Amino acid sequence: MLRDELLLAWWRLAKLPGVGSVTLGDIRQNLSRPHDLLSCTAAQLQSFGLKADAAARWLDDPALSDGFDVLQRWRNHNRCGVLLAGVAPYPETLASLRDAPTFLYYHGDLACFSQPMIAMVGSRNPTPYGAEWAQQTASQLAAAGLTVVSGMAIGIDGAVHQGALSCGRTIAVLGSGPDVIYPQRHLGLAQMVMQKGLLLSEFAPGTEPQAKHFPSRNRIISGLSLGTVVVEAAIKSGSLITARQAAEQGREVFALPGAVTNPLSHGCHQLIREGACLVQNAQDVLQELNLLPEQAQAQTQLEFDEPTASADVPIVLPPTATAAVRTEVPQLVTQVDYSATSTDVIALRSTLPISQLLPQLLDLELQGWLAQVPGGYMRLK
């Protein structure tokens, strides 16, 4: 277990004005191991890039220890603790980054770090197709032995955590303290993650979410992972920031293509133009990462049950990650696009009068084949 003395030394360093993750990372890289900070002199810290007055203050100013009791109390809670960069079990994939967070507060199962990790991110307002694809794919990746990492936001993040929990492990990286669940609607989901996965944050317990925290959080999501899968994202979105951080960190970037008429596809298409790997299913991700079992490489691709869920995915875990046996697609469904299709267009394609068409569309909606959307209906599977 980490000694309070060591944690306090790094805590005091992190509290110095003007000292951020990059400065702390540079100091860490200059030490043989994080424990060596305990024997550092002010002169040594100056040689690592710290200013003389800051180095002297680190040694002598008692005010730098303020708040450390919060860290100590958190360590006393069941299944909670603090990780220090460079000291196991802090993940080496993250610790290798220059701007890795010095402290990671956690609640849950550290065994999540024992498996390869893959990040999945996307829109807070996804299409039904995007939400279901994310949930199903996360489930399949977790079943294949990966820990699936996301950010606990509504939309794609929530679907990812739910899917992963159905068959394996997930890590939720927060933009608040580990005891402050945001959004509140994900409180139930967070409790399930604590039981079967891991809540993770660089922010001390009690820290409220702030807009500036989320770009910082995103670098952890990508930094933990071998690659980042972007499911649906607009051109200007946090998901694209995460993807570009992944690329800068030397990690793989994957993107799910979509309808050109869907603004949430534009960000993914831009990533693909920039060199991201186009993915259609979990097998594509596993194959690109060389994690596909040998016997599976000769088999047909992992089958994906296409969307039946609503965009606002409820906190209900799917019973299984295995694909259901496909049923015959009703003829009328084939006349509806995967994007909004007006009833007039469907009527023209099907040659049905509106009086007969509308009841059939309602019946197909109830069966989960279609969803009523602004502008008409959209095919789900």
TrEMBL record:
Q: Which InterPro entries match?
A: DprA, DprA_WH, DrpA_SLOG, WH-like_DNA-bd_sf
Q: Which SUPFAM superfamilies match?
A: MCP/YpsA-like (SSF102405)
Query: Residue ranges of the DprA winged helix domain?
Result: 318-376
Residue ranges of domain Smf/DprA SLOG in the record: 88-289
Tell me, which GO biological process terms does this entry list?
DNA-mediated transformation
Q: Which Pfam families match?
A: DNA_processg_A, WHD_DprA
- Protein family (similarity comment): Belongs to the DprA/Smf family.
For this entry, the protein name equals DNA-processing protein DprA
